[in-house]
């Protein structure tokens, strides 16, 4: 392959990266960790014995690619809308469309291609129903404005997205093993956690959301109430979920420090830059919660 071909290929890959970069830390990475953690934990989440170390290393890139392929058409769809471009010019000017790297028409063609690839990939792993639900969610979130009109609907839609991507990651991680019903209960509980705390992401995006006309929690209830609405549930969930998994002190050592750090940051550090880092801390806190089934299994050994 010539150097010019390599340059073109790397340029296209970088464009794809710009579309999905913000979601690597919020969906791709955490969902991959969730799926692999469940595959290591084994019972009661999956029927077959847990994966060993070599199995986890083999599944890691497959799970990450699976979530990325499913997510890509959704994020492109979201970012090609005029109001999204307006918001990104304020909050994320480095993205492919506000930076002028890609024309909206080309982005839409890329979205259609990504949807076809996503369907084929999900069909291979038996996740075509999840693919259909993702398309429906994209329609509700973007076309019907679930992300804009009501902050509870926005939080619920984000929680539902985690449910779908977390379930997909788990199914791919344990394939061809079957999932037990406990997985769905665990996902539903985590969806409640997300629905009650994901407004953390709206704190650093206040200016762009205001320009777009979004009714996010910080813009409707105010910044102070939103911060308390993150801090209190974060601490409570960090206490409740280890009890659910009966992971004793080890579970609290895994989750509670992250919950306390998140609560402290969101209440005390209130600049936009600090809020960006608090949002990253929220994602680390969620990963600590995802690991509770594994922490419970380690305790029982």
Q: Could you walk me through the main structural features you see in this protein, from its secondary elements to its overall organization?
A:
By secondary structure, the chain is mainly α. Helices cover 78% and strands 0% of the residues. The protein is built from 13 helices and no strands. The protein has helices at 3-41, 53-79, 82-91, 104-124, 128-143, 151-174, 181-197, 206-212, 217-220, 223-244, 248-268, 272-290, 292-300. The longest helix is centred in the first third of the chain and has 39 residues, at 3-41. It is globular. The mean pLDDT is 88.
Q: How do the strands and helices of this protein lay out in sequence?
A:
Elements: H1 3-41, H2 53-79, H3 82-91, H4 104-124, H5 128-143, H6 151-174, H7 181-197, H8 206-212, H9 217-220, H10 223-244, H11 248-268, H12 272-290, H13 292-300
Helix pairs in contact: 1-2, 1-6, 1-12, 1-13, 2-4, 2-5, 2-6, 3-8, 5-6, 6-7, 10-11, 11-12, 11-13
Give the SSE string: HHHHHHHHHHHHH
CA radius of gyration = 19 Å
Helix content: over 70%
Low-confidence runs of at least 5 consecutive residues: none
Report the sheet with the most strands, covering strand number, pairing sense and barrel closure: none
Number of helices: 13
Termini Cα gap: 52 Å
Q: How many beta-strand elements?
A: 0
Q: Kindly name the structural category.
A: mainly alpha
Average pLDDT metric: 88
Judging from the principal axes of the Cα atoms, what is the shape?
A: globular
Query: Strand portion, in percent?
Result: under 5%
């Amino acid at each position: 392959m010539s150097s010019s071909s390599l340059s073109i290929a790397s340029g296209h890959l970088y464009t794809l990266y710009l579309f999905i970069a913000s979601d690597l830390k919020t969906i791709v990475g955490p969902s991959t960790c969730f799926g692999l953690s469940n595959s290591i934990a084994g019972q009661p989440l999956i029927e077959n014995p847990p994966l060993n170390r070599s199995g986890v290393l083999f599944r890691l890139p497959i799970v990450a690619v699976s979530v990325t392929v499913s997510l890509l058409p959704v994020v492109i769809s979201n970012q090609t809308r005029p109001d999204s471009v307006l918001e990104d010019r304020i909050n994320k000017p480095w993205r492919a469309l506000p930076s002028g790297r890609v024309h909206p028409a080309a982005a839409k063609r890329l979205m259609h291609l990504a949807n076809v690839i996503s369907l084929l990939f999900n069909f291979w792993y038996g996740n075509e129903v999840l693919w259909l639900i993702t398309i429906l969610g994209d329609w509700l979130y973007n076309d019907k404005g679930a992300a804009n009109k009501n902050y509870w609907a926005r939080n619920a839609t984000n929680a539902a997205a985690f449910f779908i991507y977390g379930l997909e990651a788990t199914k791919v991680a344990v394939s061809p093993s079957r999932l037990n019903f406990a997985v769905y209960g665990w996902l539903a509980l985590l969806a409640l956690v997300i629905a009650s705390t994901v407004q953390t992401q709206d704190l650093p995006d206040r200016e762009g959301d205001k320009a777009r006309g979004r009714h996010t929690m910080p813009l409707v209830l105010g910044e102070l109430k939103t911060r308390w609405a993150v801090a209190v549930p974060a601490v409570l969930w960090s206490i409740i979920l280890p009890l659910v998994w009966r992971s004793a002190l080890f579970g609290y050592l895994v989750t509670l420090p992250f919950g306390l750090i998140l609560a402290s940051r969101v209440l005390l550090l209130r600049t936009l830059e600090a809020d960006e880092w608090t949002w990253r801390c929220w994602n680390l806190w969620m990963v600590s919660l995802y690991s509770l089934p594994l922490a419970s299994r380690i305790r029982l050994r």
